[in-house]
Amino acid sequence: MNILVIGSGGREHALVWKISQSPLVKSIFSAPGNGGMSDLATCVPLDSSNQDAVVKFCIEKDIGLVVVGPEVPLVAGLVDRLERENITTFGPSAYAAQLEGSKGFTKDLCAKYNIPTAAYGRFTDTHAARDFASEKGAPVVIKADGLAAGKGVIIAETLEQAHDAIDDILGGQFGEAGAELVVEEFLVGEEASFFALCDGDNILPLATAQDHKQVGEGDTGPNTGGMGAYSPAAVMTDEMTKRTIDEIILPTVRGMKEEGHPFKGVFFAGLMITEKGPELIEYNVRFGDPECQVLMMRMKSDIVPALIASVKGDVDKVEMTWHEQAALTVVMAAKGYPGSYNKNTEISNLDQAASDENTYIFHAGTKKTDGKILATGGRVLNVTALGENVTNAKDRAYSALDQIDWQQGFCRRDIGWRAVKRESE
Ligand code: AMP
Ligand code: GLY
């Protein structure tokens, strides 16, 4: 079978890497792909927002499965369009992708189906939003309703900050994505992510992970797309995982079905493990980046039958096995990220750095020109390793990273710190 993977990040490199190990696969295409994938896939300059062009490409290349990596094409309805053309496509419909595309949609679904989440209100009016925030008291969380590339959430420590955030969002800071906002209660606890495939009716639990969103060590500084991640997340004990499935994931599956829009694809549930148990912070409707990188390293089974089962409706028949080991990934980003940074700086010694069989370097913002790897994005490399525990995976990942020659790059040195601390106790 020929497979097309849409996207260009570390997540898509990890998916391509995992898919390439499947005996079911003939050729892999990646649109647009990146500089690290070219040994595994043919990178094609296909724009996923041009749905006609994607359809044409799939027909021409006899694509048997399309895997959509990022959220934007999902929310824009790429899956609906490809399915109408009878092209098998992994991912949710545009309606179901509102679970990520509209925070208000998800909160209302939670309210209707009794899914534990922070108390909230939805607003388009500044005064009403300010009054609600004042009533809740600081700290309070203000969220643009729509997709804002991870920047639409403000944790307001004071009411003044909350009021400013409300004014900014409804004043157009995020354009259409902030035409409406959600004000919600601040949850206290430890965060974790849980992943499960869904076919509309059944789920196939995958694994847990924890990421590091902030740019600075000790989880400080501005938020990024993610500076590193590891799996499994210790806070997700068997009991917490079971409660997450029973109290959050399955009610969502039933709710979406009852609404007439069954969810197919991957649930990426962002959770806060509070005193009361797991509460939903948000859903994403695609794999996390960089969480996908650690999941793919730990997944033993062939991923292709599982992705197809999510489309066809029988994920409950898929058996999936995992490496017992932990995986950890460290993001190398261009100096200046998440602000402005230089492009086209050269990276070398990557082959040497990844020579250990437990280590793999997934590329994100890179391109290959004349055999050289150049950095083209903010997040550039994901140095990923398996180990007996998180501490061991961390040591391996950093020892690989330290062999990479890239003067313009930086990373956090403390990825996995919560798990490492637990493991040393
Ligand atoms: P989101 O984009 O919804 O995942 O939010 C980004 C980050 O903001 C989350 O990963 C949390 O760290 C934090 N956050 C969001 N909502 C809440 C909440 N209600 N209480 C505490 N922290 C939150
Ligand atoms: N790492 C967070 C995300 O993919 O949304």
Element layout with pairings:
Blueprint: E1 2-7, H1 10-19, E2 27-32, E3 42-43, H2 51-60, E4 63-68, H3 71-75, H4 78-84, E5 89-90, H5 98-101, H6 103-112, E6 120-123, H7 126-136, E7 140-144, E8 153-156, H8 159-170, E9 181-185, E10 190-199, E11 203-211, E12 214-216, E13 220-223, E14 228-231, H9 238-258, E15 264-274, E16 277-284, H10 291-298, H11 304-312, E17 326-334, E18 345-347, H12 350-353, E19 359-363, E20 366-369, E21 372-375, E22 379-387, H13 390-401, E23 409-410, H14 417-424
Helix pairs in contact: 1-10, 7-8
The protein binds adenosine monophosphate and glycine.
The site of glycine has 7 residues, from loops.
> Would you count the extended β strands for me?
23
Provide the residue-averaged pLDDT: 97
User: Quaternary status of these chains?
Assistant: single chain
Major sheet description: 9 strands, antiparallel
Q: Which consecutive residue ranges, at least 5 long each, have pLDDT under 50?
A: none
User: Count of DSSP helices?
Assistant: 14
CATH topology of the largest domain: D-amino Acid Aminotransferase, Chain A, domain 1
Please give the radius of gyration in angstroms.
Answer: 21 Å
Small-molecule binders:
adenosine monophosphate, glycine
Text of the CATH class of the largest domain: Alpha Beta
Integer tally of domains: 4
Overall structural class, as computed from helix and strand content, comes to: alpha+beta
Distance between the termini: 48 Å
CATH architecture of the largest domain: 2-Layer Sandwich
